[in-house]
Histidine--tRNA ligase (Pelomonas caseinilytica), 435 residues
Amino acid sequence: MTDNKKVQPLQAVKGMNDILPPESARWESLEATMRGVLARYGYANVRVPIVEPTALFVRGIGEVTDIVEKEMYAFEDRADKHGQAEHLALRPEGTAGVVRAMIEHSYLRDSPRRLYYIGPMFRREKPQKGRYRQFHQMGIEALGFAGPDVDAEVILLARTLWRELGLKEGEDVTLEINCLGQPDERRAHREALVAHLEQHRDVLDEEARARMYSNPLRVLDTKNPAMQAMAEGAPKLLDFLGEASLAHFNGVKALLDAVGLAYRINPRLVRGLDYYNLTVFEWVTDKLGAQGTVCAGGRYDGLVEQLGGKPTPAVGFGMGLERLLLLLETLTLRQPAAAPDAYAVVPEPADLPRILPVLEALRAAGIAVQMHAGGGSFKSQFKKADASGARFALVFGADELARGEVGVKPLREAGEQVFMPAYSTVALADKLRTA
Ligand code: ATP
Ligand code: MG
């Protein structure tokens, strides 16, 4: 660096966003609401690494998937002294890592587990609204329960969250469910499906042709409009389900009916990941264009074994936080109160030793008080007070302080400044809380 050359500022990686105030307050508020709901359903937090062996995702998600084929940030680490380099990947989803950790620490031996995580995921996709390269998921995993009771539970946990966030089910978000059956049922269906795809080879796009034998079910998960009619007419997996699978599906439906949760059965719902069986579901919205899936999940009884653990039934979901926040924004619902209750105007910084104890007492009483820091004229401090969105300005002028008082001036509604005792904070806190 030389003195006369201006340093070029660097920019964040495309599709990876900074989350700054005041936006970050919306995130914290959303996460706090989530943690409250999760605790009530008995789900415990797990925090697993963001980087895992690439093989974990190849095994866990499946080789013939968008994620593993095209979207994963995978790289070779530096070689160690023996010339061996590890193949590592930024996690594109949360389930594989959680299951790995459960197996590694023998957490599934004695009792089933209800777990959740919140954190960043990485996929090299084309960035657009609601689709990013670093995005965030809250996900839950119920491990060791065969269902269908717990299938209904994970779906209902999401509904409780919508309710707490002010989202209306059936209007802002709707539930779609399907049953993927078991591997043998899927095999029979798959044969019929491949035959159907062969019959309609002329409408298949390049990707579909490449996949029609390796993963024909995924061909139906297409977003290509030219293939919709073909997909609609495809043989339905539901018609290939045996008694046990149907009983499971009916069990889930009966429980959802019992709590009055409306759903749409979507026979084409297959999910992007390979490891699902029986129940699959999505909570979707029509308010976010093509990025309409806010929460997606289902049962994945084969995964624990596939990753080297003892056979363990499992069900869970992943929820996109960016999409959820976008959805909340479109409804202008529940803008969290980023604004403080009060803004402390400090005309004379030398008076702070008498002011700070009042602010601390108010905060201890649960009042959000933002202190003006850095001095400045009375007028400029008042401007800041107004811009903060606070409902009140607390004015600690020299005359008031001499009387042991503070001026309380409403900023959001009409009303005169009143003077209140500064050192009995009970009354003051009450005024700021309720008025
Ligand atoms: P889509 O069909 O939209 O690509 P997906 O099937 O790849 O979604 P999942 O792997 O099931 O998504 O992830 C669960 C949830 O995570 C999605 O429903 C969505 O809310 C969110 N999500 C997935 N990918 C992204 C992304 N790139 N950016 C933001 N959110 C995402
Ligand atoms: Mg995707």
